[in-house]
Amino acid sequence: MKTDRNKPLALPHPGRVVLYVLPLPVALLFLSLGFVLGMTTSTASFQNLYFPFVTPSPSANKPSPPTSSLPPMSSAMHNMTDEELFRWASTAPRLDGTPYHRVPKVAFMFLVRGDLPLRPLWERFFEGHEGLYSIYVHANPSYTGSPPRGSVFHGRTIPSQRTAWGGVTLVEAERRLLANALLDLGNERFALLSESCIPLYNFPTVRAVLTGSGGASFVESIATPARYRPLFAARSNVSVERWRKGSQWFEVDRALAAEAVADGTYFPTFRENCAGERFCVADEHYMPTLASVLGWGRRNANRTLTFADWDPKRRTGSHPRTHGAEELTEELIGRIRRGGTRGNCTFNDGASGVCFLFARKFAPDTLEPLLRLAPKAMGFG
User: Fold this and answer.
1) Is residue 188 a part of any domain in this protein?
2) Largest CB tally within 10 Å, which of 118, 124, 236, 368?
3) Which keywords, in A-to-Z order, does the entry hold (predicted)?
4) Burial 286-316 (b: 16+ CB within 10 A, else e)
């Protein structure tokens, strides 16, 4: 007996529910139209769609991401351990740019002991530029203070560990800051700063130099045998010819930031070298040496964009000069912007014509003079 496929199929249960069995091509057409209409009319509901079959790791050999939740963008605090954090950050894209349109951001990473005495100056610097920057603060875990709710620094402190001057813990803190910043895919440039740092230009200028530098990183990397030990050759194949020294304060692109976070070859040797030694000064060697052994070459401008006065007549022991309120003038800011004692800002890199974007060390009592000088000397406030 021939069956009519277009005839209603009556089911025997109450309610007389009727099903129409449509030809397969027609059913697929209706299904496709329904999906397209749903996507176009309800785009907002798909913005956070998660496809569990898409692995977040670019390689099947890499460990799976931890089960901890990523921190919300409104806060830098989370409950991940360092191991989980670094595992997450290692799966993040390493290259600048993504398939979708968005404005690249600069991650400002503050490595501090506690309070930020120059915070009001930085708040004026960031004012009006929301969405173009991210802030991360690594403070001593014993510090319990917090900026007011209205501050751009509120909620931007990351889970931290104790640090000590001259120790490898400073490098650990730098990598921890980089790992947290890498979780935000909008961050393309990463600048390490201290509580005594100040901006020398307004935000648009700083961002333009960093994001428009042709992708170059700014890590001072000077060849020297100082503090080199054969352990580095034995453990990680770092010869004295590839050993480097430079300023701790760097400005890097996303690719080099990701290399530092994922580094399981060189950093363990630095940690072993510093075991039981209080002043191994690893912070002056790790990033410069990493850029050297990775062959960063022309991708590194081989200089820092953070000024410090190391003049032997003005420095204090192993630390650069600290500028006080009594010497803070528009002329001082201008001299630093022109290169300080260097006096030459011609470089073959993306920041040619700009000697420095930041400067340190500025004492807490310089806040009021800086706020007065900022509109004229630095172009903001």
Assistant:
1) yes
2) 118
3) Glycoprotein, Glycosyltransferase, Membrane, Transferase, Transmembrane, Transmembrane helix
4) bbbbbbbbbebeebbbbbbbbbbbeeeeeee
Range of the domain at 187: 82-301+366-378
The CB density around residue 320, as the number of other CB atoms within 10 Å, is: 17
Decide: 183 and 70 in contact? Cβ < 8 Å.
yes
Low-confidence ranges of the chain (pLDDT < 70): 1-74, 95-102, 317, 341-344, 346, 348, 350, 352
pLDDT for the residue 100: 52
| In-domain check, residue 335 | no
What confidence score (pLDDT) does residue 324 get?
Answer: 96
126 in any annotated domain? yes
Domain count across the chain: 1
What one-character-per-residue DSSP string does 202-271 give? Answer: -HHHHHHHHHTSTT-BB---EE--TT--THHHHHH---GGG-EE--S--EEEHHHHHHHHH--SSHHHHH
Which H or E run contains 19? Answer: strand 18-19
pTM of the model: 0.79
In a domain, 256, yes or no: yes
